[in-house]
Amino acid sequence: MKVIIFIILIYLLYKIIKTVRQLKPSGNKYDQFQSSSSSGEDLVEDPVCHTYVPLSQAYKKEISGKNYYFCSRQCGEKYQLEKNNQTP
Ligand SMILES: [Zn+2]
């Protein structure tokens, strides 16, 4: 009888380890970002720092009737300032 209890304990331990291992990657935010960007989502280029960002995570800004996408708000404002300086 003792052997059976031991086997059950080992089996439960194995199941716990397996579930913990399955939960670990989904809990990582960086992994989620990596998988979403590689799943065929449209990438847009930031015209300021030339970084490629997924469309859903890009900072959208409308400058003189055209839509531009940036990696961050700072890049968007920087681009708008440069545009304003170019046109007198
Ligand atoms: Zn940028």
Features of this protein?
3 helices, 18% strand, alpha+beta, 55% helix, two-stranded antiparallel sheet, rod-shaped, 88 residues
Structure in words:
The chain has 88 residues and is an alpha+beta fold. It folds into 2 domains: 1-39; 41-88, no CATH class. It is built from 3 helices and 4 strands; from the N terminus they run ααββββα. The strands form 2 sheets. A two-stranded antiparallel ribbon has the order 1-2. Strands 3-4 form a two-stranded antiparallel ribbon. A hairpin with a 2-residue loop joins strand 3 and strand 4 (66-70). Bound molecules: zinc ion (ZN). The site of zinc ion (ZN) has 8 residues, from loops.
Q: What is this structure's SSE topology?
A:
Layout: H1 2-26, H2 29-37, E1 43-45, E2 52-54, E3 59-63, E4 66-70, H3 73-86
Antiparallel strand pairs: 1-2, 3-4
Question: Span between N and C termini?
Answer: 90 Å
| SSE pattern, N- to C-terminal | HHEEEEH
Number of domains: 2
Shape: rod-shaped
Q: Beta-sheet strand percentage? A: 15-25%
Give Rg in angstroms: 25 Å
- Average pLDDT level: 84
| Biggest sheet: strand arrangement | 1-2
Helix content: 40-55%
What small molecules accompany the polymer chains? zinc ion
Helix/strand class: alpha+beta
Number of strands: 4
The largest β sheet comes out as: 2 strands, antiparallel
The poorly predicted ranges are none
Number of helices: 3
Summary, kept brief:
By secondary structure, this protein is of the alpha+beta class.
